[in-house]
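Re-run requested by the PI after the first attempt was lost when the workstation crashed. Everything re-entered from the original request form. Ligand of interest: glutathione.
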Amino acid sequence: MAKKEESVKLLGFWISPFSRRVEMALKLKGVPYEYLEEDLPKKSTLLLELNPIHKKVPVLVHNDKILSESHVILEYIDQTWSNNPILPQDPYEKAMARFWAKFVDEQILPVGFMSLVKAEKGIDAAIEEIQGLITFLEKEITGKDFFGGKRIGFLDMVAGSMIPFCLARAWECMRIDMIPEETFPELNRWINKLSEVEIVRECIPPKAKHIERMNKIIERVKSS
Ligand SMILES: N[C@@H](CCC(=O)N[C@@H](CS)C(=O)NCC(=O)O)C(=O)O
C-alpha cells in the first residue's frame, strides 16, 4: 500500500489499453492514486511536459519521479509495491512474460488494427495473419488459468487490456469473429475468467460507449 505522504498520479485516456493496464496494476497493489484524464488527440501541456519524448499516455508520477511507457510503468509499480506480485520471480518466466507482452503490443496490435482496417491485401488475408499470431497465445495459455498462473499478472494485464477489451471491440465493429470458440477454446476460457476479475472489471471501458468511439476511429483510419 502507498505510504501516507506518497503522491501517485496517473495521466491516462479512457479507451487506451496502455492506460487501462496501469490502472489494473495500481488497483491490484491497492495503491491510492489520482487519475488525470487526457482528452486525446488533444494533449495537455502537462502531458507534453511530463512525456516530451513520446507525448503519449500513460504517464505515472510517483512523488517526484516521472515514468512513461506502460511496460516500464508496470515493472516500476511491481518493484515499488511488493505485495501481489505482477511479474514472475523466476528469471526465465519473467523474460517470457516480457517477450509475450512485446509480441502483443508490437505484432498483434498493428496487424490487428491498422492492417485490418486498411486491408490492403484483402480482409481475408488480414484475418488469416491475425489469427496466425493469436494461435501463439492460444498455445501459451493452454493448461493455465491465467498467463500469470493462478492469478493475473503482467501478461494478463498487457494482453487483457489489448485483446478482449480493445481489439475485440474493433473487430466487433467490423463484424469479425476473430477469436471463435471452436478455434481458440483456451483463449475464450481465459477471456471469461479475466472478465470475472474485479479489478479488471473496474478498469475496462464501458462497452457501448467504447464501440461508438471505435466506430468513429475506424471510419477516420479508413478515410485517411
Ligand atoms: N508504447 C506505449 C504506447 C502508448 C500509446 O500509444 N498511447 C496512446 C493512447 S492509446 C497515445 O497516447 N497516443 C497519442 C499519440 O500517439 O499522439 C506504452 O506502452 O505506453
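Saved to the shared folder this time. Strands lie at 8-12, 34-37, 59-62, 65-68.
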